[in-house]
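Entry 14. Two folds queued back to back today. First construct below, sequence then structure tokens.
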Amino acid sequence: MLRLEIRDLRLVSAISELGNLTRAGQHLNLTQSALSHQLADLEQRVGGKLFERSGRRLIPTRLGEHLSSRGKITLDQLREIERELENMANGREATLRIATECYTCYHWLPPVLDAFRQRHPAVDVRIVPSASTYPVRALLAGVIDLCIMSSRVRDRRVRAVPLFDDEMVLVVSARHALAKRQSVTPEDLRHEHFLTYSEADDSAAFQDFLQPAGVKPSQVTPLKLTEAIIELVKADMGVGVLARWAATPYLESDLLRAIPINHLAVQRTWQAVTRATQSPPEYLSDFVEFLATSMAAPPRSRPEFSLIRSVARLSNKRRSANG
């Protein structure tokens, strides 16, 4: 017999995100008293405390963090099922759910989406930001269908198609002491305040070339949004180590500098990662091809023209195959 209900997952997710029962109650349209009773009942059913009180704030315990993270995946899946049913009822063909390993790197999407819609107008494309933290786990759980990522993938249950090569660069304010350097070494970053997507233990930059060089940052501030990192770097409140691809849309500003880092581990290959099925849907294969065509273009080129040619090429190929 199941001990968890959908309302339990919504409760834990709301408290984890909003920090206290009052705001969680407003979000769920429930009174604080009702939420307190529901939380107490849930903790009794799971056999442990889910939150610890720190002043007026509720902090998830290890049990609470686990239930919150897994619950968010389950809620995303339920929402997706609802969307799929709605699409089917309205005559939509399918839904393609995508994410990137960087929370806000979607500047590539408009030309790809334009080309894709020419080929598959009945396929709905949706972005799932919550899958960015653990994209492979989200793929295998069926939360998303495709993720663009640069981390190494060793799971045989997924398939990775290389898209383009990239590098990690140091992004600093034009006023920063390193702004005029042609390049830096990991040792040059020893006393910097790092603005990152995640804590140091989960950061590829720290794990791959900063920590092996014995570089321990003076301060690390995790920020989920690329825009937030960029704005604080502009204000000279810290530095960012970002993929050049992610930073490129912001580098036209005279307030920022991108400096190469002298280390082999800064080189990255971005990949389109999907589940390793023998016969993926045609629309998924086409989307990956449009991605490869667009991302192979030089940064200042007009990728939509090559994508239009790619659509025409696919159409001709399909007509030939069908006799």
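Second construct, same run, same settings:
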Amino acid sequence: MHLLEARQVSKVYGTLTALDKADLVVRHQEFHGLIGPNGSGKTTLLKCIAGAEFPTSGAVLLAGDDITEAMPPERSRAGLSLKFQITSVLPQLSVYDNVLLALQAQDSILSLMLSRSRRALHEKAMHLLARFRLDDRRDELAAVLSHGQQQWLEIAMALAREPKVLLLDEPTAGMSPQERRATGELLAPIKQTCSLLIVEHDLDFIKDICDSLTVLDQGQVVASGPIHEVQNSSRVKEAYLSHV
């Protein structure tokens, strides 16, 4: 059984077909890249999987359960976590409190009212911060972090719910080459507990961290499979790689 599956997903906006019967499979402990030219439907497919959009037709399954019409909070509880391209950290809170709030989202209202959660979650918060090299910045405002560090903070927050699948939309956009390399290093260990579906324009980054790849062009899947096979496909080179 696949962990995450999009089956024949289509999305139509008026006369525009953004997705046309797109299939995608993410397996357990797999990093899966999703690439394509601008306007190919990558982010639309990611949104249909996350619940930010609902497909016109087709189905989305998580661990065998149909979540096609589930609302985003339901998908989150089922094991999906999403980070879009634009960071949404809380800039006027400390780095530590951003992660703490993400962890507290799982707590009961009673626990929050009795202020039990901060002490109980401290070790988890520090572990997440250390994992993304932010533990020494814990007391600083999130606003003073570099762009790359804010991206890392939001990834840490997305992992706070211990998801089965993490969805990332262009996490390295705007990063320096050094930050992109570091991001790959920081993501690698999560494969033991969490699969990853990542939309990216940086093909070198994708090739370095992903096991499998799906290529979209004009809303249709051009190729999908192990990364070494897909990148050598003549259809992929014609539809995408030659235009990068």
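Quick look at the second one. The two ends are 35 Å apart (CA to CA). The longest strand covers residues 16-26.
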